[in-house]
């Protein structure tokens, strides 16, 4: 292999490592979020699924 091919190969290896790291990070964050939501649901004790409150930035013509 010449220097250009080696550089391309190194770039592909780095890209593969970045993809693997991104997937692992996403899996950890999703798993942690599910754990937090499950703990909140069990702490509430009412058996209802947890809800997330999101404030909307959309204003209707009636609210003005």
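Q: What amino acid sequence fits the structure above?
A:
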């Amino acid at each position: 292999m010449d220097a250009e091919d080696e550089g391309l190969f190194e770039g592909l290896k780095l890209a593969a490592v970045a993809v693997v790291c991104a997937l692992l990070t996403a899996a950890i964050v999703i798993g942690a979020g599910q754990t937090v939501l499950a703990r909140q649901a069990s702490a509430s004790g009412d058996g209802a699924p947890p809800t997330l409150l999101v404030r909307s930035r959309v204003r209707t013509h009636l609210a003005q």
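Q: And what stands out in the fold?
A: The longest helix spans residues 3-44.
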